[in-house]
Amino acid sequence: MKVNIPRTHYLKKLCSYRSNPELIKVITGIRRSGKSVLMKQFMELLLEQGVSEKNLLYIDLERKRYVLDSERALYSYIKDNISAPNPYVLIDEVQLVRGWERALDTIRLEFDANIYVTGSNSETVSSELGTHLTGRYVEIGILPFSFKEFIERYPLNDDNGYTQRLEQYLHHGGMPIIDLDDDEEKNLAILQGVYSSIINKDIRPNLEMNQGTLDNLTAFMLSNIGNLVSAGNIKNGAHIRDPRTLEKYLSKLCDCFIFYRADNYDIIGKKHLQTKSKYYVADTGLRNAILCKQEHNEAALLENAVYLELIRRGYRVNIGSYKDHEVDFTAWKPNSEPEFYQISLELDKESTVKRELNVFKTLPSSKKYIITMGKDVPRSLPEGTEVVDAVEFFLSS
User: Residue 62's Cα: distance from chain center in Å?
Assistant: First the structure.
């Protein structure tokens, strides 16, 4: 059963740029995360707000990829189909047309068009795009459903309260394409198909690759979600001998938004450390599907979900290093002091409490949080430290 959940968070962002037609708005994110649906919801919102249908031009390049196969063809099609001044031009999967940025920049200038596009590959905002549209585009990253949206999609009932829904969210993820009420094996097959689609549509056409090597790399990265890894760790774990091959494959997996990288950050020295990083998958359900449910690590899934939520809220997120301690996340927004997060599935053991709290004692910020699914809260906490229930965290603003 398909349910259309309004992506309110992203719609607000898209609307905020309506008054900036000089900027091309580029919506990016992993395939099947809801970019096309978001575009259609935005069109409906524009109509509700009084924009005439004549002022809207929508193009699905997945369907027209063999007709609009060049920047010249794309430019001509848009030019011939604009029927009103100051049009809104909305294009799905724009990366399928090489040179699209030049065609759209010309349309923007000639017709004073307000342009919104979606792309499933970060090459849509690559150095080439920066060269042709320097200062004239903005990227809006979209992720699968948040836990708030998941609850809207699957309301609470007699059998499923907030805790049960959160466990389901961590296990199944937030891809809009799956249906929690459907057969689990079917959902796993759908998510495996999403991964195959990314490989075949976004990676293979641009990269000569060994499928077995890429699969080994993906499996290793998914098995090590939440672990600090170096290039050497990854190379050995994924059985890749050539460091150039590793860099090429890993870059492509991040370009297609399967993985997000969190770099190490020296809290005291306030500088990035290049030695090790953590990688997080765009959807926790995708992890379980690709690993075929062989490695269910709820603590890693919770950490992954918290990372994505912080990114969704507009934070810049790094791993924080302080002396001999590691803080799970150092997160900040422009002109704001950093916030520190420790993620712990439970706080029921004294050793766990000591480990999680010890690093907080000397950190300079007053914003220190421990996110947990456990119900036990330590009696004594370092100044400025707050223990936050995971459900409350995901449902808060």
Answer: 22
Nearest to 104 by CA among 68, 63, 140: 68
Phi, psi of 114, deg, nearest 5: -100, 110
Q: Give pLDDT tens digits for 98-140.
A: 899 999 999 999 999 999 999 988 766 665 566 777 778 999 9
Question: How far is 164 from 178, CA to CA, in rounded Å?
Answer: 18
How far is Cα 146 from Cα 314, in angstroms, rounded to an integer? 13
Query: Are the beta carbons of 82 and 111 closer than 8 angstroms?
Result: yes
pLDDT mean across residues, the chain: 89
Instruction: Report the share of the chain in percent with pLDDT over 70.
Output: 92
The pLDDT-based confidence of 273 (bands split at 50, 70, 90) is: very low
* Nearest alpha carbon to residue 343 among 297, 293, 383: 297
Q: Packing angle between helix 162-172 and helix 298-312, nearest 10 degrees?
A: 90
10 Å CB burial of residue 201 (0-12, 13-18, 19+) is: middle
Q: What is the per-residue pLDDT for 124? A: 66
Q: What is the pTM of this model?
A: 0.93
